[in-house]
Amino acid sequence: MYKFFYKLSLLFKRIIGYEKPLRVVLLAYLSLKFKTFKPHYESILYEGCLEAKKLGINQVSVIELGVAGGAGIIALEKYKKKIEKVLDINIDIYGFDTGSGLPKIEADEDLPFLWREGLYKIDKVALEKKINSKIFYGDVQNTLNDFIKINKNNICCIFFDLDLYTSTINFLNQIPKIKDHLLPRVLCYFDDVYVFENYINQFNGVFKAIDEFNKNFSDFKLGHSVDHFKDFKFPLAKTSIYTLHCFKNHLYKKYIGTDIESDLSLGSKHMRSIMD
């Protein structure tokens, strides 16, 4: 009984001390309870497609790195149908996975105390019955070329769920290979920037991979904005979203802003709405 009340009191203190709105907890709970409920995936996909439309592009591709049980791809396919209708755009979804779970883990940066070989193995037969998207099985260092051969669209967003530093950097190092397949700015969601135990930091995992990528390539940079109170677009994902800037892309400098956003003269309707 003592253990129960102690854990209850600890939970209570954690809840009242939680710095974010409790609706965030509700969304997080629903996403854990219902695996294909991923509002952050929907918002990222929508914003990525919206960026493409502003650039005059009507066909895009989306990549998920690390498919596992397939919840992510199933969710993306569900959201794709809605977004295609709303934005009048065509979306192709591609997945990459070893098919046999996580590879052998040896590097310290891969957190061998947290991950182990074989985790998240795919049931290929069961998954293929549920989805229409193409999945490339094998090491992404070998399968990316197969993707390049068939992909005709610009990639608008990439969902990273590779868990490991090694797997993540192996993909990032190939970004120059797909430079002609990228939008000038690509939304990237990194699922593995946080675990409850606070094991992941700038010296391992995804953060280390991103840091090395930024140091190694001058034409591409991955960065994220501050966690600002005005940012309401990406529930459950604000600090997990990076933007891949492709500076040499021929559309990088194309203006996609709106005159309404830039018209802050005192007589403008937009300015009056801010002051009211």
Structure commentary:
The N and C termini lie far apart (56 Å). Helix 3 crosses helix 4 (71-87). The longest helix has 17 residues, at 71-87. The chain has ten helices and seven strands. The chain has helices at 2-16, 22-33, 39-54, 71-87, 124-128, 140-150, 165-172, 205-216, 259-262, 269-275; strands spanning 59-65, 90-97, 134-137, 154-160, 182-190, 220-223, 241-246. It has a seven-stranded mixed beta sheet, with helices on both faces. The chain is of the alpha/beta class. It folds into two domains: 1-33, no CATH class; 35-275, Rossmann fold (3-Layer(aba) Sandwich), CATH 3.40.50.150.
Q: How many domains?
A: 2
Q: Going by CATH, what is the homologous superfamily of the largest domain? A: Vaccinia Virus protein VP39
How much is the average pLDDT? 89
Instruction: Provide the structure class.
Output: alpha/beta
CATH-scheme architecture of the largest domain: 3-Layer(aba) Sandwich
For this structure, what is the CATH class of the largest domain?
A: Alpha Beta
Q: Which descriptors apply to this entry?
A:
alpha/beta, globular, 276 residues, Rossmann fold
What topology emerges from the helices and strands here?
Layout: H1 2-16, H2 22-33, H3 39-54, E1 59-65, H4 71-87, E2 90-97, H5 124-128, E3 134-137, H6 140-150, E4 154-160, H7 165-172, E5 182-190, H8 205-216, E6 220-223, E7 241-246, H9 259-262, H10 269-275
A few lines on this structure:
This protein is an alpha/beta fold and 276 residues long. Helix content is 39%, strand content 16%. The chain has 10 helices and 7 strands.
